[in-house]
Description:
Layout: E1 6-12, E2 15-23, E3 28-33, H1 47-52, E4 55-60, H2 82-95, E5 101-106, H3 108-119, E6 124-130, H4 135-140, H5 144-149, H6 151-156, H7 161-168, H8 170-174, H9 178-181, H10 183-193, H11 196-223, E7 231-236, H12 241-245, H13 248-252, E8 259-264, H14 270-273, H15 275-288
Parallel strand pairs: 3-4, 3-5, 5-6, 6-7, 7-8
Antiparallel strand pairs: 1-2, 2-4
Helix pairs in contact: 2-3, 7-11
Amino acid sequence: MFDGFTVDDVPVGDATLHVRVGGDAGGEPLVLLHGHPRTGATWHRVAPLLASRGFRVVVPDLRGYGRSIAPAPRPDHSQASKRAMAEDVLALMRSLGHETFRLVGHDRGSYAAFRLAMDHPEAVRSVALLDCLPIVEHLDRITPEFATEWFHWFFFAQPETPERVITADPDAWYGGDPDAMGPENFAERREAVHRPEVVRAMLEDYRAGLTIDRADEEADRAAGRRLQPPLLVLWSLRDDLERLFGDPLTIWRDWADDVRGHGIESGHHVAEEAPDALADALIGFFRGVM
Length: 290
């Protein structure tokens, strides 16, 4: 995976990010943020396509995920907040010499990307969010169907029990197909979820989502803050986002003025299932907006 990419562990304040970097050293910097329960390896089919088109591609593991290191859990879950993850990425990019960059987030990584673009619009030139709505928009639209299909949001928020359930048999909980994911990507994900500290950190991500992250979004909405960088919204047509919530673009237009996007024929893990279509959409967007 990631032929020609360098691999490093970069301290960023109270966390350390495991990061892959590749592509044109003088190219425009582009950050890819993964979702749960993946690592940066989920981008192994997309990152080389972007690198081959002249981008300088930066692929970290989110704090606590994969081989990145997060602080111990705090009572308010702030160590797993999307603001903390966003600050990690900003510090990482500055350490690599990039004051501005393009940004992509999928699933949980999309919340970190959203927070980074909201808090630091001067750094984010444009942002793509994949399979994502703001957390408060999900919670405002709770239905029995949502609660059933997305039950993990609320199960993961419970204290201690999810850790016991998942660590008892991580392979049974997370599953996965090595052929579909790519054998090395699967092996990296599998190694990560067999470490209890990684499972704990991933669960803390969800606990933060329903508490401190929700509060941050509610404060944004109450203050009328909007996403300033141009926004691309992509969603997987064989997943359930559009079926449960309707047109994602309509919802995102309550949060940003420059919104565009479309669905992609894929299941949820679009970077693994439809890498060419995803790369084409990202390149078209990033090349088309200044």
